[in-house]
Specification:
Blueprint (H helix, E strand, L loop, with lengths): L1 E2 L6 H23 L1 H10 L2 H23 L11 H19 L10 H18 L16 E2 L5 E2 L2 H21 L3 H5 L1 H16 L7 E3 L2 E2 H25 L1
Parallel strand pairs: 1-2
Antiparallel strand pairs: 2-3, 4-5
């Protein structure tokens, strides 16, 4: 078992570092593939980003609080998974109203991945008050967050999974893989939701249907969204 030093305020340090990392990733992606950012700027308007921000904030607090208000420690909270889902709803609603049917998420893929990879370290070292810890385990890499109980480091599981996807994505873009150019955002959503779905079984969250918690259901919705949009894009290309 690995004993980790924890403090609740580290969560905010992790947030700052995650935003900084995402900004640097966006800068690199823009310099490497400027046409992607150019397309986004030409397609969207300020309302796009306002809808994105509003949806992300609402989704973050809606799903985060919807989980913790049913837990042993009742509190309001926010969730990156909820923010991602809410942002998608906000953007898709804006695009539908404006008649835009093309995917606009490619430029966000690497920044989102880096933000999650870095931000989850803040969640881990924030300790038990962050309420993102895993269930008890006796695995050699179990972490003690201050209560003497070895737990799954689910935050690190998520960081590693998204770091691996980011590496695969960048390599695929550099080699001109079709999926990385046409469906990168959808692929990222599917991978994020699938790995998060798996780790949710190792979290002490209240269930809503059988063994599934609120985030299991949300991840199922995101996987369906990613697959449907991917197939829709291929159908348009074939047509």
């Amino acid at each position: 078992m690995i004993v980790l030093p924890t403090a609740p305020w580290i969560h905010y340090v992790g947030d700052v570092c995650a935003w900084a990392g995402a900004a640097l990733a966006a800068r690199w992606q823009h310099r490497r593939w400027p046409e992607e950012t150019g397309h986004l700027a030409a397609t969207t308007r300020p309302g796009y980003f306002l809808s994105l921000a509003a949806g992300a904030v609402i989704g973050a607090w809606l799903f985060g609080s919807g989980n913790t208000l049913r837990s042993a420690v009742v509190t309001l909270s926010h969730s990156i998974a909820g923010a991602l889902a809410g942002g998608i709803v906000g953007v898709e609603a804006w695009k539908w109203a404006k008649g835009i049917r093309r995917s606009t998420g490619g430029g966000f893929v690497l920044p989102i991945c880096v933000g999650i990879v870095v931000g989850r370290f803040g969640c881990l070292f924030a300790g038990l008050p962050d309420f993102t810890y895993g269930t008890p385990t006796d695995l050699p890499w179990a972490v003690d967050l201050g209560d003497g109980i070895g737990r799954h480091p689910v935050e690190l599981y998520e960081s590693v999974a998204m770091a691996l996807f980011a590496i695969v994505y960048v390599r695929a873009r550099l080699y001109g893989a079709h999926w990385a150019n046409a469906h990168a955002f959808h692929a990222m959503i599917i991978v994020y939701a699938a790995q998060r779905f798996a780790w949710e079984f190792w979290k002490p969250y209240p269930t809503v249907i059988g063994p599934l918690n609120i985030f299991h259901l949300l991840m199922m919705g995101l996987i369906a969204y990613g697959i449907l949009w991917w197939r829709r894009g291929d159908d348009r290309a074939a047509g």
